[in-house]
What does this fold into?
Amino acid sequence: MKNTEKSTINLSSDYLQGAHPDVMKRLAETNLLKTAGYTLDEFSQSAREKIRKECNAPEADVFFLTGGTQTNAVFIGAYLKPYQGVIAADSAHISLHEAGAIEFGGHKVLTVPSENGKIKAEDIRDYIDGYYSDKNHEHMVMPGMVYISQPTECGTLYSLDELEKISELCRKNNIALYADGARLAYALACDKNDVSLADLARLCDAFYIGGTKCGTLFGEALVIPVHNLIPHLFTMTKQYGALLAKGRIAGVQFDTLFTDGLYYRLGRTAIDAADKIRAALKEKGYKTLYDSPTNQIFVLFENSRLEEISRNAELGFWEKADQDHTVMRLAASWATTEEEVKDFISVI
Amino acid sequence: MKNTEKSTINLSSDYLQGAHPDVMKRLAETNLLKTAGYTLDEFSQSAREKIRKECNAPEADVFFLTGGTQTNAVFIGAYLKPYQGVIAADSAHISLHEAGAIEFGGHKVLTVPSENGKIKAEDIRDYIDGYYSDKNHEHMVMPGMVYISQPTECGTLYSLDELEKISELCRKNNIALYADGARLAYALACDKNDVSLADLARLCDAFYIGGTKCGTLFGEALVIPVHNLIPHLFTMTKQYGALLAKGRIAGVQFDTLFTDGLYYRLGRTAIDAADKIRAALKEKGYKTLYDSPTNQIFVLFENSRLEEISRNAELGFWEKADQDHTVMRLAASWATTEEEVKDFISVI
Amino acid sequence: MKNTEKSTINLSSDYLQGAHPDVMKRLAETNLLKTAGYTLDEFSQSAREKIRKECNAPEADVFFLTGGTQTNAVFIGAYLKPYQGVIAADSAHISLHEAGAIEFGGHKVLTVPSENGKIKAEDIRDYIDGYYSDKNHEHMVMPGMVYISQPTECGTLYSLDELEKISELCRKNNIALYADGARLAYALACDKNDVSLADLARLCDAFYIGGTKCGTLFGEALVIPVHNLIPHLFTMTKQYGALLAKGRIAGVQFDTLFTDGLYYRLGRTAIDAADKIRAALKEKGYKTLYDSPTNQIFVLFENSRLEEISRNAELGFWEKADQDHTVMRLAASWATTEEEVKDFISVI
Amino acid sequence: MKNTEKSTINLSSDYLQGAHPDVMKRLAETNLLKTAGYTLDEFSQSAREKIRKECNAPEADVFFLTGGTQTNAVFIGAYLKPYQGVIAADSAHISLHEAGAIEFGGHKVLTVPSENGKIKAEDIRDYIDGYYSDKNHEHMVMPGMVYISQPTECGTLYSLDELEKISELCRKNNIALYADGARLAYALACDKNDVSLADLARLCDAFYIGGTKCGTLFGEALVIPVHNLIPHLFTMTKQYGALLAKGRIAGVQFDTLFTDGLYYRLGRTAIDAADKIRAALKEKGYKTLYDSPTNQIFVLFENSRLEEISRNAELGFWEKADQDHTVMRLAASWATTEEEVKDFISVI
It folds into this structure.
């Protein structure tokens, strides 16, 4: 297994490593305790309480699921009526990179144009108005939900103002608003960010607090601020194969993330690393895309330069820009060390 | 969280505790290594190799999934054609206790009578013959697979002879045979057991090696002896929300389970504990059901006696036998200590 | 095509011929009129009004669908929540002979024992009680509906008293009651029958008035007494591929069936024919099964005798009784003539 | 019902009336013949033979289904593997106007840009290449089929050359090509058309010959040139609720359509009517869209003029062009009379 611990720099993704050491420590400490199954244990209950408090949502239902695609499939599938679809950016993860899991569950993803991964209230409104003003709309898929990501796939953030506009529009049209928070820690820790967990709980009908990319071995916390919004969701998670027998493993991890502000702190670690890299890239004249302030950086490289850098650092391929240029993704995480940042800066 | 570590005896289930200490240790050791995602990492590859070797199935596809219901839903759903269903015991877990996940995936569970959780080749044959001899069978669900559990829900075992008969029947009828091995470690470690992993790989089209109840935090290893039996199953696991982003967490755990025979040893620990309890129960005149030789024991208690015992020991409710008697389930596990066994024997 | 008009007697089924001559006449008369599509035309509206009146259900929603399996799949699928299943007789059409359409739609058929095709309120109650008293019922499929057929597959009838008991039980448990009326005309026309359309509308949450087997070219009228019980069912029928573009073809047919009592009269024709055949069979010492008073007759034949009769009359195979005996189904219909009855009696 | 037979001109759609008189006559003549059910009757067999001959596809499987959405849902759903989607025009009927039936069946519609309802081989190729060249394509929906309409929603036609290019591309990529022929009679009868039924059978993996809009009461004939391309499709049609009990009603209708070239002749009637209307519109200076040579005409009207015309003629709303103009759809059909054409021309 020796070649897994590469001495080279690896910024290709934010899920390369295990769990935050505090999380691992707590898992080890609690390992032999006996608890009830299916997230009915005391750790899960404690984690729920902490999340409710942090979200200022005392009645919220909180479900611990395994991964992002699963969480999206379960919430979207369980919430929507059969005749409804979900509005999303044409670039959204559920549109492109979840193997059609939403359609596999029977629902259409209704795409609207996006810029830097974000969609606008106006475009959503146009879609909804277009639907209702079409005289044949009973032969069409009714929009029943809006899906956004915070941060987006491109590392960008919705501002509080933007989110409030979208939320208002959704409520006016009796459409749910759902936010995918796979990398939520890296939004919350940003200086530029003005959307808190409490804001998300106030403005969304559901969102999830990402664990897999933000400090846990696995696991996402689905937060539904209105209690019992989806009756029997517990049973439905079982139908989706998403109910964890040893739910306490997720509970322990989220309980730790929301003890002493670890979730914010580990987000901050990633942002600090990313900020340093961004500054260095700028200084050295590299061009970045999307103006992402979060843990992800999208850099345009000349191919020859990229080849050279790649001998020392593993980056993530994003897309071909043209014959001679490539966009690469760099992702910092809770585990990115100052040393790794320094090493990377030295090779660019 | 103090009340979770109950000083009282708890034999109510075999998934009350975390992972085997060796598994936890290995997770901690490898925690900060960087690896590829989606079970494409070196740990997962190593675990696959060890499993293939143990199963004498060098070409086998091995998928690491999260839990038993998920594994059943993914394999059964991905293998069957839309017009096919799966034959199972009327008491099978997929028939009764998986929230209809198989039907949620579009397939009927076709039940045959069972005894002590087991189904017989003759009853399966009768079902298949009944289907094909019905002149309207094109209006009916075609049996496309047989599902069994080893050990069964009742703790009983299929003998090699029984399994060979079922396998032969399935192959003759071009029907897949699939074995649910949620508690497989506790079958393999039994003195009475004559079915090895290699036998399962030889006789089944797929089976899973249970982790959740047998030493891991979570995770099941789905073994499909014929390579590429189900093309694009990787993508389908994603559709089911079952693809682990940090797949290496499952890989590390299964790699540890199949290093130095840990999977067999931890199974043996449970069987030793269960055997001692069984002997004590017999000596004290208790009646047990199903003649289970594995880690589960089903005991008939007089209600008044049960109430007394329950003050000191937590057992699992199984069913009401009559007004005055109750059947309880006792489950030993890899984590059951000699002390706990002794304590329990002293209170019955 | 000459060999289709067999001179021999054919009682093998009740959907061998086209539509009742009055229905054909009305289709021809209205053929070139121009109307709106999708059952929004005046004929469909008129048919709905007549059905509402006949059912004493002035607010009822009435949908015209193509066939029985489709109607069952659409109503059951659209009504049930994802975590619910439908209780039915183990011998029910949806359990055995609809190719798993209900499971294909994601829902489990929960079987209870039946006698002569009928299920009892007590058995339904036991099933429901068993579900709710099981401490693990959140891991099981919740019963959300009861499906019955009137008449049943065996030609038997639910009495008003039996139906009221089942209805009361369902309402007490907040479970829908749905009746499959594929052959409803042949129940309504029976002397023994005491369940009217108005009773069905009062006691069921939905039922369908069969056309395909009762006088139309195709088509079933799904009656849902409570308006908007299932919001957007129109759109859902489209999703199921069940929305008729030229809905008026169904509308014209049902409008005719409910003009001047044609539906009752054509049912009576079949019952009269069946009664005469039953009397003749009894007189000649044949044994019948199930005591069906409707248009279907199930007769036990000695094989040698059956062979002889089959030279002159086509009957429907039902099941092998033993080595020497076979049960055959005889079905009269709205189109069975006195001459055919006489001819058949002469050959038995 | 008097107001259904409007004296005013109605060109709003091509499914306003019943069946072609020859079809109605044959239904009446055969009405009381006794035949087998489920399209196993002699009429259906005869219709199949005639269709096979016309398509020069002697081995073709031919299924008679009820309507277009159903036929699309059944073929696409039954053919695709769970991990595959279907490529279609962004304006395709399955993309927009079938209530999400394809997604309801579990598959994503993968849209490519279209012009006048048509998609180009190059755009399909780009989509496929984009998929396979994406390093994450195993996390994406695999294109498994291309869906086109002949004629398209906009009344335009694929030329033989265009169709051959698309077909070649599909075969090279092992992707099925499927053509929706809801209005196929109106393509086949066009002077401009150079694609025959035999071409479709040679170039497509499946297509359907539309009946509902082309002369029948209901019904579409799904033609699959390679026998048994989809094993057990009969059972799957039952699962979709699409198997007609009295299948002979569809069989009689299609047998008539393919006797003495009726299908071509009735198509010609519509094209003649449409051509006259097109000429008159041109002469009077109206602007038409899409350059449709088939039975549909899309005309740009000044709103004030449209209001006036609408007093005498019912047209179909298509879309708002701007504040002062509206695009309306005019559809001729097999039933459009010379008188109606003359009347319409006199009011524009």
Summary: Residues 21-259 of chain C form a domain with the Aspartate Aminotransferase; domain 2 fold (CATH 3.40.640.10). Chain C has two domains: 9-17+264-347, 21-259. Residues 122 and 166 of chain C are 9 Å apart (CA to CA).
